[in-house]
Amino acid sequence: MSEWLYRLVPTRPEMVTAPTAAEQDVVAAHFEYLVGLRDRGILILAGRTQEEGGTFGITIFEADDERAARAVMDADPGVSGGVFAATLHPYAVAVARDGLAG
Questions:
Q1: CB atoms < 10 A from the CB of 81, how many?
Q2: 19-43 burial: b if 16+ Cβ within 10 Å, else e
Q3: Most buried among 2, 19, 73, 94, using CB within 10 Å?
Q4: What homologous superfamily is domain 2-91 in, according to CATH?
Q5: What is the pTM of this model?
Q6: What is the pLDDT of residue 52?
Q7: C-alpha separations of 89 from 16, 24, 33, 61 in Å
């Protein structure tokens, strides 16, 4: 298992402050997807910046290889639904509160 990060940027910047009903539905599905990854022991952490303008989110998780990591990212409803653009990056946790770093 290796660690991966995908960075999410809204495809419509106004979505952060004025989401459409359809975007709200996709974001809710995105959140549930992340909860599911957590419950399956895949997700390490997820969250978003709290700045106005230029906001983005990150998801840090474990996968066997790049193909598997890309599949996790692409299956995110926020990505597949077009609400977020995503980029995948190899990642390594160096220090963690819960002793996860390895």
A1: 16
A2: beeebeebbebbeebbeebeeeebb
A3: 73
A4: Dimeric alpha+beta barrel (3.30.70.1060)
A5: 0.91
A6: 77
A7: 23, 26, 19, 11
